[in-house]
Amino acid sequence: MNIEELTAVANAIVAKQKGVLAADESSPTIKKRFDTIKVESTEESRRRYREIMFTAEGIERYIGGVILFDETLRQSTRDGMPFAKLLSDRGIAPGIKVDKGATALALQPGNRVTEGLDGLRDRLVEYKQLGAKFAKWRAVIDIDEHSVPSAFGIRANAHGLARYAALCQEVGLVPIVEPEVLMDGAHDIERCEVVTSNVLETVFSELDAHGVVFEGMLLKPNMVIAGMKCPKQAGVQQVAEATLRCLRRYVPAAVPGIVFLSGGQSAEVATEHLNAMNAMGPQPWQVSFSYGRALQAPVLAAWKGQESNAAAAEQALLKRSKLNGLARDGKYTRDMEAAG
Ligand code: 13P
């Protein structure tokens, strides 16, 4: 393991104003996204959609890394330039989703665990050869108002994340460690803070036990937020304060950056939350984004599968990236949404 190299890659991804574009939807997930704009999901439509995003002019100022799905890492532009090389040449680190999704955890009703450790070392070696600089593994923590997740459910997911992260660092890929406490459900923000705290404490204890070097990784957590069905929704400032309080308690200062998932928040609200956190002053780590839906929803809406809309789709991605880049400095305001 070359710690200096891992640290340099991790720091470059969360450099000033920059964050991550999560474009690693699996085939069933991208089909769901395409269904919303009535576009058939084929290998070519998926390739073209990603090509529009990856060639969008100007995004390299705000996007330090892009997470790809296995199929996409093997695809190229129309002119035959592999996506990984295109991104690298633009100063954007290509990354790869390596987990194989979540499945029910045996004997732990309501809990799921992420699969994909078998054969992972060999897959990581191949991904590195294909040009990946970092990887992502998502653990899904379901939450209800009472007993889910169980303590063992949290431990099982933390163990999987740590096994994955150690393998990544051994091979020379920066692991993005993603324990996602879901926004679904009716739980309040206080319950989300308790569960997120337990999850982060357990994850860092497992990472440490596995010998993972914190300087050479990134954390991709949920924000501390009320469940979508909770009648009492928290305000922007309350979310920012609860999230930072929780992270400051459980995330070591050695971690270079925190890159939040958007998890079902609207594009505007995800940017507002990020902005509010950065407006609270410097933190031990960079406070940044790794948004999927919150970056791509406006892109899909602009594109609609029509070639004539490609330029508008590029503009939509640049605009969202720029606004999140401003939020990295606490300089975003809602009235910027109206301007082009
Ligand atoms: P969302 O921002 O849409 O939650 O996606 C981020 C991600 O990569 C989930 O694994």
Question: Per CATH, which architecture?
Answer: Alpha-Beta Barrel
Low-pLDDT ranges = none
Q: Largest sheet at a glance?
A: 8 strands, parallel, barrel
Quick one: CATH superfamily?
Aldolase class I
Question: Which range best describes the helical content: under 10%, 10-25%, 25-40%, 40-55%, 55-70% or over 70%?
Answer: 40-55%
- Mean of residue pLDDT? 98
Q: Name the shape in a single word.
A: globular
Rg on CA atoms, Å? 19 Å
SS-based class: alpha/beta
Number-wise, the strands total: 10
Q: What is the total domain count?
A: 1
Distance between the termini: 45 Å
Q: In DSSP terms, counting alpha (H) and pi (I) runs of 4 or more, how many helices?
A: 12
Question: What ligand species are in this complex?
Answer: 1,3-dihydroxyacetonephosphate
State which percent range the strand residues make up: 5-15%
The ordered H/E elements are HEHHEHHEEEHEHEHEHEHEHH
Strand order of the largest sheet: 1-2-3-6-7-8-9-10
CATH topology: TIM Barrel
CATH class category name: Alpha Beta
